[in-house]
Amino acid sequence: MSKGSESGWTPWLAEVLEAFHCQTGTIHRSVDGEWLDLEAVLGVPEALMPVIARIPFGKGIAGAAAATREPVELCNLQQDLGGVAKEGARQTKVSGSLAVPVFSADGGRVIGTLGIGKIEPYEFSDEEKAALAARAEELASRWESDD
Known about the structure:
Number of domains: 1
Shape: globular
Helix content: 25-40%
CATH superfamily: GAF domain
Strand order of the largest sheet: 3-2-1-6-5-4
Oligomer: single chain
Radius of gyration: 14 Å
Strand content: 25-35%
Number of helices: 4
Number of strands: 6
Order of helices and strands: HEEHEHEEEH
Distance between the termini: 17 Å
Structural class: alpha+beta
CATH topology: Beta-Lactamase
């Protein structure tokens, strides 16, 4: 696990956040198809690092995106009553959040997730979801070229 300040992915994540006018972001990577390990983080309180450092598929926003292989959005995380968000997620002070899966080159496996969040309640458009999925493809390509 790398904290945002220690990760080589931090500048790339910062660019993504700027492009989407977001204040928080996470990159999680999976090597086993069951767990997501934190690669980079920006804007998330230090107290939450133990909670988001390792997430099982199916749990939390990132885990739900990995398990369903679809974008997962919460328009207002502070009032989420659907049970998708992990316990303690409200501590981020984020309201609008979006996580997308990162797929292997062949599309057969989820190899990570890319998540962004805004302080204010926000509903991401289909165009924004597609744009974040495109950034996730870029991430996958860079991961696979590094391997």
